[in-house]
Amino acid sequence: MDNLIWLIPVLPLAGFVINGLGRNTLSKGIIGTIGSLLVLVAFGLSVATFFQIKNSGVPVEVNLFDWIAVGSFHIPFAFLIDQLSSIMLLIITGVGFLIHLYSIGYMHDDAGFGKFFAYLNLFVFFMLLLVMGSNYVVMFIGWEGVGLCSYLLIGFWYTNPSYADAAKKAFVMNRIGDLGFLLGIFLLVNTFGSTNFADIFPHAPAAVTAGAPIVLITLLLFVGAVGKSAQLPLFTWLPDAMAGPTPVSALIHAATMVTAGIYMIARSNILFSLAQDTMEVIAIVGLATAAFAALIALTQTDIKKVLAYSTVSQLGYMFLGLGVGAYTGAFFHVLTHAFFKALLFLGAGSVIHAMSGEQDMRKMGGLKGKIRVTFITMLVGTIAIAGIPPFSGFFSKDEILAAAFAHSTTFYVVGVITAGLTSFYMFRMMYLTFWGKFRGTHEQEHHLHESPANMTIPLIVLAILSAVAGMIGVPAIMGGHHELGAYLAPVFEASHKILGEHELSHNTEWILMGTSVLIAILAMGYAYSKYVSGAHVSVSDAEERPALANLSYHKFYIDELYDKIIRKPLDAISVFFYKVVEVLGIDGFVNGLGKGTLETSKGLRLLQTGNVGFYIFMMVVGIIAILVYSLIKI
User: Which positions fall inside the NADH:quinone oxidoreductase/Mrp antiporter transmembrane domain (predicted)?
Assistant: First the structure.
């Protein structure tokens, strides 16, 4: 497989080129087949690579060419496939293929079908580049590439000004984080003289002992992760990314772009393990983000907005896991989240498709008998994200909460309360959408229908994965063997030696599990009593809400706050620089030189009279002036 690894990212790139050039000439069937098939082949190669790593236990590094060489400083364009990246390859290509397949049906009537598939293929290429790079520079290329593609995909329907603004917002906020990441890379080069993982990670402990600024390096890298993975305060772009088509929401929010920050920290785990202060910051930011986003999700009425804030909250859980040293648990949640969140977004797309484009849950209801496959599959995803056993989310979330408890009781309490909020708002979404009476129009009710097979098959596959994926991480107290933990052990071995193991007694683990499950079930029951038994429907935007509900519904006015304290002052400064510095200063000076020359030439022009006597007189005056100057100089 070593000689074929380079094909994994190249195949989606080929799909981008073919579909991009042939978007106006190839049929939609050919475009959809090419775009999906090439990602499927990449998935097949990823599976083969995974089993090679699993059987041999030896990472594979493929050096394609020496990219940058300045003296003794070299940056190769190389790929590193180990236990961590091999799983990411499976997630990106596997879930990516299902999203491509789903998009064939979802985007079939869109005029930009070919362009859309070209962008999807390019996105997959850059995401693969990000996880396969053997150094921070190749990773950064993929990092910036997925940022570009997210801009193109979020703003795909750019004729709508609000959608175009959402794309620009995502692009700008990601650039803020990317600056931190870039500065972190510069500091790594200054400290270690290299960007290669193989040159940095083994020498990190000695460098820290020698006084390397490891806390500053890791904080800068974390700033990059905050932007890409939508953590406080750079999280507001992610909910607005709902402006893109639903398959884009699934691709960005589920398994790919938003998990890039998690992957980068997991890849750099030895650096962060040596910086305990940074890890504490990561845990606090992650926990705050998880709780804050969950509070906002409680009152949202747009089905995709609920899922968007859910993603922000779940990413916060992953950062909490990273911050308390549960690297395996955090990555386990990346894996399970990829399945159930992709399922939920694609399921939401199926609901929107059935509702003729309607996204407001207040205008839905009673759909479980109309679109049964969508209902059943979304129910599986909801149970999984709520953390109810034996579905996948229970095992990964429980591992993070257990590690949080071992680190800090406060972290655990906030985390388990947030888990209860997650269960409430997710079942609220299900009850408002699928239970009760239909609240839409007669025309919408008349057109209600299940999505075509190319949309429901990915839902079924993802539902199965959401149900059983947790089996690879069954804890020992439940009679299981943590297969994922054993597989990833070589990647996190050095960090575990530094951080040590936080063992909990079996009784404590059972109590923690029981507590989280009980809270999730109680929250589910409360949501049922309110939205099914009580038939409560959220009020319209014109009606008054209680103060706290109003704060949650308006996202605590964070966007308005940013607009007031950041955008408007920057706009005022830019207007000042334009009108005063640019127009009056620079333009005034440059234009003044031109006007001065013009007016002077007009005056001098009057001396050219054409009179020979005047010219002789001026010559004499000139000679006298030269003589006087010569005498004065002597």
Answer: 135-422
Q: Which amino acid is at 409?
A: T
Instruction: Check residue 634 and give its pLDDT.
Output: 64
Rounded to 5, what percent of the chain is helix, strand, coil?
Answer: 75, 5, 20
Instruction: Specify the pairing of strand 60-70 against strand 73-81.
Output: antiparallel
CB distance 448 to 368 below 8 Å: no
Kindly state the helix (H) or strand (E) to which residue 233 belongs, with its residue range.
none
- Please return the burial class of 19, using the count of CB atoms within 10 Å of its CB with bins 0-12, 13-18 and 19+: buried
Please name the residues in contact with 390: beta carbons below 8 A apart, sequence gap of 6 or more: 467, 470
DSSP 8-class letter at 360 = B
Instruction: Output the CA angle 288-293-299, nearest 5 degrees.
Output: 140
The DSSP annotation for 522-582 comes to HHHHHHHIIIIIS---PPPTTS---HHHHHHHTGGGHHHHHIIIIIHHHHHHHHHIIIIII
Q: What is the DSSP letter of 155?
A: T
Closest CA to 75 of 16, 136, 21: 136
Q: What is the pLDDT of residue 243?
A: 82
303-323 vs 327-354: helix crossing angle, rounded to 10? 180
Q: Which residue has the tokens 């009593």?
A: 529
- Strand, helix or coil for residue 12: helix
Sorted by sequence, the CB contacts under 8 Å of residue 356 that are 6+ apart come out as 443, 444, 447
Please enumerate in sequence order all residues whose Cβ is within 8 A of that of 504, keeping only pairs 6 or more positions apart, or say none.
402, 405, 406, 512
Report how far residue 359's alpha carbon sits from residue 351's, in angstroms, rounded to the nearest whole number.
8
First vs last Cα of the chain: how many Å apart? 90
Q: Name the packing angle between helices 260-267 and 113-132 (round to 10°).
A: 10
Radius of gyration for the alpha carbons in the chain, expressed in angstroms and rounded: 30
Looking at the whole model, is its pTM more than 0.85? yes
Residues of the chain under the 70 pLDDT cut: 1, 254-255, 634
Which residues are CB-neighbours of 101 under 8 A, at least 6 positions away? 36, 454, 457, 458
Residue count of the chain: 634
pLDDT tens-digit profile of 612-627?
888 888 889 989 999 8
The answer to whether the beta carbons of residues 341 and 307 sit under 8 Å apart is yes
Give the model's pLDDT for residue 254: 65
Tokens encoding 285: 């930011």
Please list the residues that pair with 77 across neighbouring strands. Answer: 65
Calculated CA dihedral for residues 51, 52, 57, 63, nearest 10 degrees: -130
Give the SS3 label for residue 134: coil
Cβ partners under 8 Å of residue 254, min gap 6:
95, 99, 311, 337, 338, 339, 341, 342, 345
Side-chain half-sphere CA neighbours of 38 within 13 A: 25
Q: CA nearest 396: which of 406, 385, 407, 405? A: 385
